[in-house]
Structure formats: C-alpha cells, structure tokens
Amino acid sequence: MEKTVKIGFLGCGNVGGGVWRLLSGFSREIAHRTGLRFDVRRVLVRSLDKHRDLPAGVLTTRVEDVIDDPEISIVLEFLGGEEPAHQYITAALERGKTVVTANKVAFALHWHELQKAAKASGAGLYYEAAVCGAIPIIHTLEESLQANRIHYIYGIVNGTTNYILTRMSKEGAEYADVLKDAQRLGLAEPDPSSDVEGLDAAYKLSILASLAFHGRVPFENVYVEGITQVQAEDIRCGQELGYTLKLLAIAKRDGLKVETRVHPTFIKNDHPLANISGAFNAVFLNGHACGDMMFMGRGAGDLPTASAIVSDLVRAASAQKHLYPTFENELNPTVALQNNTDWRCAFYSRMLAQDRPGVLSRIAQTFADHGVSIAAMQQKGARAGGHVTLVFITHEASEQAMQQAILEITPDVATVESLLRVED
Ligand code: HSE
Questions:
Q1: Distance, CA 58 to ligand 1 centroid (Å)?
Q2: pLDDT exceeds 80 at position 336
Q3: What is the average per-residue pLDDT within 317-340?
Q4: Across 135-242, where does the E strand assignment appear?
Q5: Which class for 68: exposed (0-12), middle (13-18), buried (19 or more C-beta within 10 A)?
Q6: How would residue 382 be classed by pLDDT, with cut points 50, 70 and 90?
Q7: Per-residue pLDDT at 160 exceeds 90
Q8: Is residue 210 over pLDDT 80?
Q9: Which residue in 62, 151, 198, 304 is a FRET match for 260, CA 20 to 30 A apart?
Q10: Cβ within 8 Å of residue 366, ≥6 positions away
Q11: Residue 53 has what pLDDT?
C-alpha cells in the first residue's frame, strides 16, 4: 500500500528546483521501490512571480505557511547561509517536523542546538547534501564505517577551487585570470570568497571530522587558508618535482588530539586525489579495519545535490525511529577532543636568493636550527639581477618550527616567495 507524505520547501533556487524535478520525474520509481509518494504542499519563495514552472497554489512568501502547516511532516531547507535558515530549521524541528537540509553553514555552526531541538520533539535531522553533494559520505561515516577507528581524512570538498587549480595546472595560467573565466562561465560565484578563501571547505571539514572522530570539532578549530595567493610558478615548480597542488581539507586524529586544516597542499602525482580534476569532489580516508578508501563524485549542482536530498527524504519518511549521530555533541563535553595547532608535515618553499658564496649554507643552517631537514633542493634558471630561484622540499617538520625558520631568513640572504605544505 502506498503512503503519501506531505512535504514543504524552504527556498526554491537551483537546488530546490533540482529536487522538484527529481521528485516529479522519478516519483513512480520511488513509489514502486519504497511505497512512498511525496506531495509538495508549500514552497517558500522570495517572490511569487519568479517560479512560473511550479503550480501557483504551492508558492508562498510566508514561512509560517510551511512550518505551521499541520499536514507537512517533512521540511526541506535550501535557503543556504546561517540566517534565517538556522531560525527556520529550529522552528520546524520544535514543531516536530523532520528537516532535510543541504545547509553546511547553519549545520556546522549550530549542530549542537539543532540536534537538541530534534531530539526534544522526536523529529529527524538529515544533512547528507551538506557535504560533497551527491557523494554519500555522511551516511558512510554515520553508519557504514562504524566498525572503524578513522585515522585521517583527506578531502577535495570544494568544486570551485578544484576547477580553478586544475586549470592553473593544465594551462600554466594565473589565479586571477582563471577565476575571471570561471565566473564568466558560471562555474564560480559572482562573490567567490567563501569558496576561494577555504571557508566552504572548512564548514564541510568540521562536519566530516566530528563524525569521523566521534566528538564535536567546531568550525572555529579548523585552520583555513584559501587559494587566493597561489601562484602559477609554484604549481609549475611542484609539477617538475612530481607534485600536484590541491586545496585539501585534512583531518587527523592522534589520541584525543585532532588537527583540522584546509590549505593548498602538494600531493604526489600518483596519489589517488591528484587525478580528481575539474569541479569533482573526493574524500580519501583511512580506517583501522577498512584501510584506505576513496569516494568521488559531483559535489554541487542541482541534480547531484537533489540526489542526496531525495535519498535523505526517503530515508526520513521510512524511518521507524530517527537516529542521531552517536558522538558527544555537547557544547562542553566531559571528554573533549583537543584542537592541535602545531601539526607535522613536509614543506615546499620557493625563494629568491642572493647568488654568492655561503648563502645556501645559511639557509640550510637556519632550517637546521629549527629541526627542519631538507629532502630536495633545486636551483632554477640563470642568475637574474644577482638573484637565483631556489626551491626546497623538506622532510616532515613542525609547522611552528618551519614558520619560525622562514621568519629568520632575512632579505640579505633570500626573500621567501612562497611556503606550501606537502602531504604524502
Ligand atoms: N560552492 C561549493 C563548491 C558547492 O564549489 O564546491 C556547495 O557546497
């Protein structure tokens, strides 16, 4: 026997439109497989004139028409951003309505209170689409990998920056030129700051790390560096040494210490993540029982995101009892994961050095003074204006020691043009 579930939308932009189309075009298959039919009763929009393809009767500009409708049992939120989405999700949960959201910002910043509101009213809270679009990484971490202690996660979790870095690598083009072109093609937002400054990736990493390490990793604990300062010359020098540059979201756990960081990172050309090109996303992780695994797919776009949302919707409507992540999600948990601000990794640095005797040994000595050991060094090109370009790759060293060493390299020896991190 078929069951009809009445649902409401908060927002109907690109993603909401994709969900509407997927629900309309795939409803017979969903009903056949699950016995569920979804009836979209109300859709909150900003303006009633814009959405001519939706039946006029469902559109509303009043949020109360969605969250106060007693017949609507599941609310799908596509507004994005922190407010008013956070307020509306809370209000829906408090009224006992299950919420399916694609909103990583509201979720990463207010997970604790949203989950509390959901538990109090017995409603469900589903958020697969908030991280990496169509890739089912949330469900994988919540359920499929429960028998694992996850050691680390490396993710390419932002499609815009992966698209830009891929084109910079392939074409030798500069960041600003590729960004402009990506905006012209509609592949980067008119205001790209959240993507290119790494914030979008950091919200997603805080959610992934919390699930993977079974303890809340607040967004504020993620070290964030975007791609705005990346220079084509460094991508080229890295390629010559066998490395590809990616904006990686990295989470590692050692006992109770967790390091979470988002920054441009060189990885070896033969690392599986090095081949994830264009706007694709991927998550590479390691668990003590499953070993290495990689998940790859589309992290954005109307139908890929709708794929995750409609799957969550079916899961929510079929659940006998809603489940909540089983980790400590309190603001002040008794045993808290500690933020590790001094991680270890290898480094890449490009310098413009004075070309005279003793310069190389002074740089090497400064590194040595801080426990930084050089793994490879290249002197590039001819001398220009009394300077030569030097490229260093170090062995694994402490972040803070490396930063201190770089500060102590003075212009009479060399100017440090770039410092990037390297992961194996
Ligand atoms: N702006 C994101 C990206 C998609 O470029 O991957 C939504 O999270």
A1: 28
A2: no
A3: 82
A4: 150-156, 223-224
A5: middle
A6: confident
A7: yes
A8: yes
A9: 304
A10: 405, 408, 409
A11: 79
Looking up tokens 């776009």, which residue turns up?
Answer: 301
The total number of residues written for the chain in this structure = 424
**What average pLDDT is seen over the chain?**
95
- Among 158, 205, 247, 309, say which to mutate for ligand 1: greatest number of ligand atoms within 8 Å of CB: 158
H/E run at residue 318: helix 302-318
Active site residue 204: yes
Q: State the pairing for strand pair 257-268/414-423.
A: parallel
CA 383 to chain CA centroid, Å, is 42
pTM higher than the cut 0.90: yes
Can you tell me the distance from the alpha carbon of 252 to that of 134, in angstroms, rounded to the nearest whole number? Answer: 24
With the most atoms of ligand 1 within 8 angstroms of its CB, the residue from 156, 200, 206 to mutate is 200
Which sign does the torsion angle of CA 98, 101, 106, 110 carry? Answer: positive
> Can you tell me the distance from the alpha carbon of 424 to that of 418, in angstroms, rounded to the nearest whole number?
20
Measured N-to-C along each axis, helices 199-213 and 104-121 cross at an angle, to the nearest 10 degrees, of 40
Tell me the average pLDDT across 140-164. 96
| SS3 (DSSP) at 156 | strand
Contact yes or no for 38/104 (Cβ under 8 A): no
Per-position DSSP letters for 66-111, written without gaps between them: HHT-TT--EEEE---SSTTHHHHHHHHHHTT-EEEE--HHHHHHHH
- The answer to whether the CB of 195 is under 6 A from ligand 1 is yes
pLDDT at position 334: 67
**What tens digit of pLDDT does each residue of 61-95 get?**
999 999 999 999 999 999 999 999 999 999 999 99
302 lines ligand 1 (CB under 6 A): no
Element at 266 (helix H, strand E): strand 257-268
Tokens of 398: 């402490």
Helix (H, G, I), strand (E, B) or coil at 267: strand
* Alpha carbon distance 20, 25 (integer Å): 9
